[in-house]
Amino acid sequence: MDLAFSPEETAFRHEISAWIRDNLPAGWGTPEFKEPKTFEERLEFSRAWEKRLAEAGWAGISWPKDYGGRGTTLMDQIIFHEEMAAARAPQIFINFVGINLAGPTIMAHGSEQQKKRYLPKILDMSEVWCQGFSEPNAGSDLANVQTKAVLDGDNFIVNGQKIWTSFAHVADWCLLLCRTDSSVAKHKGLSYLLVDMHSAGIEPRPLKQITGEAEFDEVFFTDVRVPRAQLLGEMNMGWTYANTTLANERGPAFLAHQIRFRNSLNDLFDSAKRTMRDGVPVAEHPAFRDRLARAYAEVEIMRYIGYRLVTSILRNGRPGVEGSIAKLYWSEMVRRFQETSIAIAGLGGMLDDEDGFDGGKWNRGFSMSFAQTIAAGSSEIQKNIISERVLGMPRGEVWAPKPKEKV
Amino acid sequence: MDFDFSADQYGLRDEARRFLEKQCPVSHVREFLDDKAGWSRDLWKQMADLGWMALPFPEQYGGLGQSFLDLVLLLGELGRSLAPVPFLSSVAMAGQVILAHGSEEQRARLLPGIASGDRIAALAVSEQPQGFGGTSIDMHPTQDGDTWHLNGEKKYVLDAPAADLFVVAACVGDQNRWFVVEEGARVTPQTTYDPTRGAGSVSFDDAVADPLEAPFLFPGLQLATAAVCAEMIGAAEKILDMTVEYSKQREQFGRPIGSFQAIKHKCAEMATELEAARAAAYYACWAVASGAEDAALSSHIAKSYCSDQLAHLAGEGVQGHGGIAFTWEHDMHLYLKRIKTAQVFLGDGPYHRERIARIVGL
Ligand SMILES: Cc1cc2nc3c(=O)[nH]c(=O)nc-3n(C[C@H](O)[C@H](O)[C@H](O)COP(=O)(O)OP(=O)(O)OC[C@H]3O[C@@H](n4cnc5c(N)ncnc54)[C@H](O)[C@@H]3O)c2cc1C
User: Fold this and answer.
1) Whole-prediction pTM
2) If you measure CA to CA, which chain B residue comes closest to A10?
3) Does A167 have pLDDT greater than 80?
4) Which residue, A15, A337, B170, B355, is the most exposed by fewest CB within 10 angstroms?
5) What is the ipTM of this complex?
């Protein structure tokens, strides 16, 4: 057991932190900086920032050099995330799906030609990706995907509907999970297509979210032609590939989130020190003090869990089912954290935005926290996975509709 | 980055598990339940033969030259088997305090007996039920030339009935530090909630006390705290194992209760609490053993989380068993009591969270 970083890793840390310091968007982090507010503003801002990161070669740190990456280690990638967060640099936003989901999935299952075609364009930010998995009737029960792809000569013809597809209306490409065989068990008839979002017949409609902004969409597919060459891996193996995507969604990006939460924690502590309650700062009020210290402990423990996860990847080559335990811990922790934050506001929590406590930042955080326990496999689904695959408990519950009574 | 134990450390764990399953089944633990001062001298002797007590001490003090980290999984196994021996107190707490704070002369005098198992040391900190450490220590030694004397009473001293050597926290001026009392301590064994363990009060009447050289409670107290967490992990693992196992066997409504989602999700939550507790406990063990910057903070994080979350886990373990766990016959209550006792020992959740709050500047 040794949690120290090597001299090479430390040198890399200095290199990246110096780069970040010199390259942060002008005015970033100063009180004068006008944070992008609407989705459009954030989009424009993050395109510029993420492009700058990409040009300096920070986008695919652990990706092979052949595909435009740096070809270094997972540890370097983690250090990059840590330094980005420590410097409070803007988070990866628009390219999140590309770098964290599309890239690793294509690397794991794509043909050489596909890797050469798609990966460099993710890294240089010239193509943005979205994840077309969920449907109105296939959420937690993802294997129930009904969007159909029928082979017609050299093309698939795709029909159906996706929902909750983050960034669909700005994406160039989509990781599309669709049904290619309805005659077999539901998870055996799925295929994984790489779909050009500019194809005829695709219509994304933005959905306004809990925060009032539209970050995700419902997406309609009507007779969309997808060249056969854009099938990932083999026909009807989509479920396996989808699980790679999901494992990455629950993987190492984790540690970056942790440090972001440490930043939020510092902000929250500042808030708690300058907000008075019953004549004393909230930070000195025993009930709140205990909750704040608990939040601190829980955020730190997330770092330790992240280190254990990374160790398991380094030792065994890939994240195991422990990813589900980490995901459950962290999502539930985020929910508790945001409840504690908004509690500090007291009645201030009744108001939002410019009238709100700390500009409504904790209200937004609270609303957003539900994404953690719902998306990327809800907490309940993680508990199913943990109980069945980690603890070996019996699968599934038997349920049958009540027999209709005879009249 | 390598945040896991080595193959050797896992090897020792496996060996310890096999040994304890054979030599220390719960039936053996139960032989001592009714005896306030009872503990297994037999088992202790066999453990000494295996060299376990010598493990974490340098060779010049009769040890095997391994580190505190090599103790961590072993402590877990002792927790898992509820072994009725004073290993935690003597080797992992008091022994480590002497190693960390003692002068060369003090270590050479005290450690060989502990490392061979011939002497048993206990850590005496608390004097009152509420609060812990800091200002709750009100024992003030008196100095007479070069000799110090202790008066007063320490309470809640784990393994006091087995011990012949006490490492005592006392206050000189406004500084708490460790004293060693080799003779003249009067032990009153007390009835413990966790019947697998002995504890008692220890009173001193002008007992000669030798101040350990390094004049603080830290890092000794952190080492002891991390050790308690490491032991709790083992007991908690066993609770989860028992609960999952039982849920696969016990049938109600014509199916294993482990097929009910309420039970499955309970177990998944327990597994998650356990993994987080492990991460916290092992991190603290590493941090205190290697003198990391965040050693103090991490020990408070670990103990606050283990205290409250593992106590929750233990309660869920009882719940998952139903009526059978309410019997004296079933072993679950022994584990519940083990964890509930450890929850408050060396500071409960609120105490450690208050320490966190101070360290992080709240
Ligand atoms: C912010 C956000 C962004 C998202 N982005 C994307 C995206 O980019 N691409 C994409 O494909 N999807 C995306 N999703 C969709 C997300 O993956 C789904 O919302 C999620 O899988 C849950 O599906 P559902 O919404 O249909 O809820 P349901 O599956 O209907 O679940 C409703 C409730 O029932 C519970 N439940 C369901 N099944 C079980 C069971 N077997 N046992 C116990 N409880 C159960 C759930 O836990 C939940 O509490 C996003 C979601 C959010 C919130």
Assistant:
1) 0.95
2) B1
3) yes
4) A15
5) 0.96
